[in-house]
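Batch job 17 of 40 flagged for manual review because the log was empty.
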Amino acid sequence: MTTTAITHIGSLVTNDPALGDGSPLGLIQDAAVVIDGETVAWVGPADKVPAADESFDAAGRAVIPGFVDSHSHLVFAGDRTAEFNARMSGRSYSAGGIRTTVAATRAATDAELEANLLRHLDEARRQGTTTFETKSGYGLTVADEARALRIAAAHTEEVTYLGAHIVSPDYAEDPAGYVDLVTGEMLTACAPYARWVDVFCEKGAFDGDQARAILTAGAAAGLIPRVHANQLSYGPGVQLAVELEAASADHCTHLTDADVDALAQAADTTVATLLPGAEFSTRAQWPDARRLIDAGATVALSTDCNPGSSYTSSMPFCIALAVRDMRMTPDEALWSATAGGARALRRTDVGVVTPGARADLALLDAPSHVHLAYRPGVPLVSAVWQRGVRAV
């Protein structure tokens, strides 16, 4: 098996305090990394790097773990430019816009859906993302939800069943009937392709009782809960996520003190995943990351890439937003976009650069990871290794 040494790294983020300077980022200055096959074999000072079959000179630039995007909606068809344009002209976002994408997705072929997924994955990879989660939720029939998950599962192990995105238009007059479908025939068809079950617990989507029924049924089928929680208004989503030991409560925009306390108490179990692209694209209130971090909650950052409310695949952009508008430090934002995302996916093999971890790394055309926020909008990722293979 071929080994590769990445040498002369000016600043290496390991996310392992024991390897580096003792900070959460585990920084090592003037560092090197050795990759053996798909995994990291060695990390340390550049002047102590062991021999390897091949070498890559980082020339003093920074290396970070590949981004872990733990929340996206990439199996879809169609375009919602008109909706975005109208919203930017003064109309507020509501969950109903999802129906537009549902119609386009149902009309698309499998090949068209897969091609669109692969286009977005390539776009994200070029910006440093090496692990991603993605959901169904734009089919809302048994056949369309199952095919979305089957297509996604061919390209990532982090697949989420989101039949409970909104009540299907076909069941507009019978929400209870749709919940029965989501927890019954649809779940049976979808569970073999998914690791996670999710629900949009929100006014206009599913209330607390409906969400509990859906998540409980998913868990009984072997899927691990995640929750779209408290995005558009205060509600039961966060408390339900903590109660059911969901891996993450996502959005967390409208939080009571009790919600923040619950997430802090559940920091080892339920991650608060913040999605600033959604607030940017809807001109909504920003999540208060500082409040969560100071309380002791575990925070992840993700893109929420979707065609309606957050059409970005750029984790660097989300880092810049988090620093500028969510009161995160550059160190906290990077940790949340890498190790935090891994926590939200209950993974220990990604989001870190440490021996035994998957060899997912991004080289920045900058001397420090701080440039991700310092130089917003600049394409700083100049090389990416995914599973030990140079992908960009």
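Reviewer: the log was empty due to a logging misconfiguration, but the result itself is present. The chain has a mean pLDDT of 96. Unflagging and moving on to job 18.
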